[in-house]
Amino acid sequence: MDRQKIRQLVDAIAAAAEPLERVQLMEVCGTHTVSLMRSGVKSLLPETVRLISGPGCPVCVTSSAYLDAACELAGRGDVTICTYGDMVRVPGRSASLEQLRGQGAQVTVVYSARDAVRFARDEPGRNVVFLAVGFETTTPGTAAAVREADADGLENFFILPGHKLVIPAIEALLAAGDVPIDGFLCPGHVSVILGSAAYRPIAEGRGKPCVVAGFEPVNMLEAVAALVGQVAAGVSRVENVYGVAVREEGNPVALRLIDEVFEPAPAVWRAMGTIDGSGLELREKYARFDGFARFALTLGEDYEPAGCRCGEVIQGKVEPTACPLFGKVCTPLAPVGPCMVSSEGTCAAWYKYNPARRAHRGESPDGGGAANEG
Predict the structure, then answer these.
(1) Which of 23, 54, 15, 44 is nearest to 227 (CA)?
(2) Helix %, strand %, coil % for the chain, to 5?
(3) I need a surface site. Which of 34, 217, 256, 296 has the fewest CB within 10 A?
(4) Alpha carbon of 76 to those of 27, 41, 127, 293, 351: distances in Å?
(5) Can you give the pLDDT at residue 331?
């Protein structure tokens, strides 16, 4: 790690922030949340510069009603649920997919949507339903899987559409005005698909600086320095400090694939309600793969478990330690809400990497934080 570069960036951030009373920046990427906590970057910033976590964890923003629909399907004897691993342990209203699997339900963890297609091809006597959740990063994979299933004429493969779009969520947060946000640390993986130009409506239309960053401490600090510099100068534009992976136009092939298979639609976000144009539904050509329609599923009301504040955490309204369940009733081994389940969840990151929590519990640092590296 380039300690000298880190020190230079920290000093630059402090100098730019000195005349400001407060700068509150939001990261909208679960990987950023984990990387910021693990590396100790937050502890290097001046008190006037605060990073808060937004709705960047795909599992955490998935509505509880969607999970209940998946659990209902899992209880049917002729259905196999294929899903990414983090979704399995999220508690639903009455059970998690993991618990249902222990009771005999067919729930299979896959690493890609195309794994689910192969499973459906190999098991023609079973209905295979893939839980299509995630942001623009994973959406192209789902689109490719649907197109492959269509080309193969599969009649037993379906998806539960649950993909989310980042930009409408940012717009919704700003429109709500519940949390003061001075700028956005924009997601690296999503931006590979979207491109940095996608954030211009936020920077130019909303007047909020946007900087795309990777996940190494130096790169994240470069992004924070750029954001604080823009706030101090009273300007708002899009910058990209992750040029090694992100282009202005994004990935045109992936974007065309998404557009071929899906079209924008309203979507329910956990605790944020319905956000117009923030989700994706199958276009008419591929509508036969919609598991909601095929199995006559309806989404009930979204809800939070009693005492759980995950909904506020993903909107940057509170930190995990403000939740009365955090670290007591709700732990990674016995999670109550999705923010403690997901590997990209804010609560899970705080539980594992927060120095204050470690000190309170009498634990020694794990050696992974930048604060221990000078």
Answers:
(1) 23
(2) 45, 20, 35
(3) 296
(4) 39, 47, 10, 16, 36
(5) 94
Pairing label, strands 106-109, 49-53? unpaired
Residues 145, 58, 273: CA angle, nearest 5 degrees:
110
Task: Write the DSSP symbol of residue 364.
Answer: P
In angstroms, rounded to a whole number, what is the distance separating the alpha carbons of residues 130 and 119? 10
Tell me which residues of the chain have a pLDDT lower than 50: 358-374
Class of domain 3-58+167-187+211-228 (CATH, top level): alpha beta
DSSP characters over 190-203: HHHHH-GGGGHIII
Count of helix runs (H) and strand runs (E) in the chain: 19, 11
Backbone angles phi, psi at 157, to 5 degrees: -110, 135
pLDDT of residue 233: 97
Identical fold for domains 3-58+167-187+211-228 and 63-163+251-294, yes or no, is yes
Q: Which helix (H) or strand (E) holds 53?
A: strand 49-53
Domain residue spans of the chain: 3-58+167-187+211-228, 63-163+251-294, 311-352
CATH, domain 63-163+251-294, list 3.30.590.10, 3.40.50.11740, 3.90.470.20, 3.20.20.70: 3.40.50.11740
pLDDT recorded at residue 356 = 57
The strand pair at 262-269 and 273-282 is best described as antiparallel
* pTM to 2 decimal places: 0.91
Sheet holding 210-212, edge to edge: 49-53, 23-27, 183-186, 210-212, 238-240
How far apart are alpha carbons 359 and 371 in whole angstroms?
14
- The residue among 60, 15, 104, 81 whose CA lies nearest residue 336 is 60
Stated length of the chain = 374
Beta-ladder partners of 168: none
Whole-angstrom Cα distance, residue 371 to residue 369? 5
